[in-house]
Amino acid sequence: MDTKIEAIGAGKQKASKILRVGFIGMGGIANHHANLYKKLGGVEMVCGCDIRPEANEHFKNVHGIQHTYTDFKKMLKEFKDVDAIDVCTPNGVHAPAAIAAAEAGKHVFCEKPMAMNAKEAQAMADAAKRNKVQFVMGFQHRFEPRSFAIREQVESGKFGKILYVRAQALRRRGIPNWGVFGRKELQGGGPMIDIGVHILDTAYSIIGRPRPITATANTFTYFGNKKSKVKSQWPNWDYKTYTVEDMAVGMIRFDTGTMLTIESSFVAHLEQDVFNIQIFGEKGGAIWSTSDMYFDMGTYMMNAKPAFLGNWNMWEYKMTHAIEVFRDGRKNECPAEDGVNVQKMLDAVYASAQAGREVTIA
Ligand SMILES: NC(=O)c1ccc[n+]([C@@H]2O[C@H](COP(=O)([O-])OP(=O)(O)OC[C@H]3O[C@@H](n4cnc5c(N)ncnc54)[C@H](O)[C@@H]3O)[C@@H](O)[C@H]2O)c1
After folding, report:
1. pLDDT by position in tens, the chain (length 362)
2. Measured in whole angstroms, how far is the alpha carbon of residue 198 from the centre of its chain?
3. Which residue among 143, 160, 238, 287 is buried most deeply as judged by most CB within 10 Å?
4. Do 124 and 115 touch, CB atoms closer than 8 A?
5. Which atom of ligand 1 is the closest one to the Cα of 194?
6. CB-defined site of ligand 1, < 6 Å
7. Residue 77: which domain range?
8. Whose CA is nearest to atom 25 of ligand 1?
9. Are 181 and 257 in a shared domain?
10. Is-cis flag, bond preceding 113, omega within 30?
11. Best of 23, 32, 33, 50 to mutate for ligand 1, by most ligand atoms within 8 A of CB?
12. Phi/psi at 169 (nearest 5 deg)?
């Protein structure tokens, strides 16, 4: 991974030329991206598509996008003057939108998870390759300062062989009450594919992207499909259409021998939310949330912590990185291949839960 981050930061974009970006899907996350494009500069938001006319109106009025459509195929056919498409739809539309954009010769920036499953994800990666366009996956936690700090120690061998990784994305009560996050047919799954994917990608990128070979897992639905009177941050989710898991736990084996457990939930009965990774190596270990690291030095067990981690913002890094990959040919630090591999692990977690046994990952 490229650790040169000097160029990252608001207002630091020295645009050699302007990148023309179009959106497919203009809801919550697209708004966030649009605000960041404006803040970072070097980008013109030229077109956008949403099936909701009110989203198109909003993007016209708030973000100045003049050319809006309700059908992305029509947009890609009619509006040619765009360099990259930012895919921000629900998961089920990522593959058709990204493939259509690649076929139209546009670079693709795709929000997480890459797709509903690995088959779709692979088709997206293939479409980008076939059409010689760049594909950047929209994971951001791999770009946090603490991710770089721990990744560097792993890469330099300070922890020795990585034995075990514990990745957790657990909310005490956090079923999204917007969008379609509870609908398996539109999202592919629940907390595992929605928030587990973030911590899984981060852990996977930190330990050097080894090849996953098997998974054993289970999923549980016990809460989200019922009405609840318990007060919580996001009440009144649509329990009637809720068909995803509330919790998924899995164990993944890599070809390096490393074991990784992943725990993910919208509804875990625990004191407070956990979003964390612990790494256990032969010679050292780390806790991602605090960036504490543990080694033996001489005759002592030592606790280490970076005195200065860097102070960039992961979202600005993520967006700047994508802009520079598309516009300036910067090395892609979050390629389609990583999205496919993460998706294979997600698929295996769901497949193992369904089968009730360990499954192999092709
Ligand atoms: N990186 C992150 O941390 C992060 C955070 C939130 C969401 N996301 C991802 O972003 C995606 C969207 O999430 P969101 O929270 O913005 O959801 P959202 O429901 O707010 O927005 C999705 C938008 O897509 C539109 N849409 C649906 N089908 C479409 C189609 N066929 N063509 C065009 N537009 C279509 C919807 O009308 C809606 O406006 C999801 O894949 C989600 O996982 C990522």
Report:
1. 444 344 444 444 555 689 999 999 999 999 999 999 999 999 999 999 999 999 999 999 999 999 999 999 999 999 999 999 999 999 999 999 999 999 999 999 999 999 999 999 999 999 999 999 999 999 999 999 999 999 999 999 999 999 999 999 999 999 999 999 999 999 999 999 999 999 999 999 999 999 999 999 999 999 999 999 999 999 999 999 999 999 999 999 999 999 999 999 999 999 999 999 999 999 999 999 999 999 999 999 999 999 999 999 999 999 999 999 999 999 999 999 999 999 999 999 999 999 999 999 99
2. 5
3. 143
4. yes
5. 43
6. 24-30, 49-52, 55, 72, 88-91, 93, 111-112, 138, 140, 178-179, 194
7. 19-141+315-332
8. 25
9. yes
10. yes
11. 50
12. -135, 85
pTM over 0.70: yes
* Residue 3 falls inside a structural domain: no
DSSP assignment letter at 141: G
26 CA → ligand 1 middle, Å: 7
Instruction: Pick the atom of ligand 1 nearest to 179's CA.
Output: 19
**Separation between Cα atoms, residue 99 and residue 248, nearest integer Å:** 29
- The CATH number assigned to the domain holding 303 equals 3.30.360.10
Closest CA to 217 of 239, 193, 198, 243: 193
**Whether residue 78 is found in the same domain as residue 171:** no
